Amino acid sequence: MIKSEIEKAFNAQINREFFSSYLYLSMSAYFQDINLLGFAHWMRIQAQEELLHATKMFDFVLERGGRVILDKIDKPENTWQSPIAAFEAAYKHEIFITENINNLVSLAIEHKDYASNSFLQWFVNEQVEEEATADEILKKLKL
Ligand code: OFO
To answer: Closest by alpha carbon to 76, among 21, 137, 127?
Structure first.
């Protein structure tokens, strides 16, 4: 059985993952609008990946006997000053997500919830990749 404090933290992270999907879908629409179709496609794939992150956590909470409470999803930005600005925002967002995943891991360890800690390691590794990919594209754009 998952402890209520951890359940609450997972629910907050599920919301952030759905917001991530919403944000990248919004970026996809922006890139489509300025005819950068490759970036639009890339952002669309990111949006789908974020949905998978959200549902992976959703399933985990349920499997641990917890309750999933879905909250409203914030409105994402819908325009950026340039493709660089959009990727800067994406990179910054991934750093923010990493911080939140790390906080969840710390909470799990604090509560001796080793199942949550083990489950979250997948996200810890995923964030290394997500930050690196966004940063790589950003650096190429700046060239
Ligand atoms: Fe972009 O990794 Fe989930 O949020």
So the answer is: 21
